[in-house]
Design a protein that fits this description.
Largest sheet: 4 strands, mixed
Strand content: 5-15%
Number of domains: 1
Shape: globular
Order of helices and strands: EHHHHEEHE
Radius of gyration: 15 Å
Number of strands: 4
Strand order of the largest sheet: 3-2-1-4
Helix content: 25-40%
Length: about 130
Amino acid sequence: MHTTNYTQTFITASPDTTVNFGKVPEKPGSIAQLQYALLSERPYEMTSDDLLFEVYAQRNGIDEAKRDEARAAFFSKPQACLRASPLVKQFGWGLHHDAEGRVAMVGVDTDAYREMTHRHDIKCVPGIRTKRG
């Protein structure tokens, strides 16, 4: 089974993002909006794998009774990690993964974001660029 989980890591906003504050995604049902809703309601409660699968399950209408089987099938193939999340690519959010791999959002315009980028006890990795080159 594959995993997208990080520990003690901060994914910074993509270097080519055009947003200079944490913006709320507005398109209902979009990956960005669902990820935002889950992370804003439940900071540091979900791992990256939990978040990615929950968004997949919601978008595909997977019943609660079938989720264990669907999750196993979902992670039987490699999945893109949260470095590719639209939150970091387009909406101005960094994603902090704690020691247990649980995730929370941090807006690029906040003191907390600046502090995360200077901490020596966590690894900083950039979000994936939206454009090549």
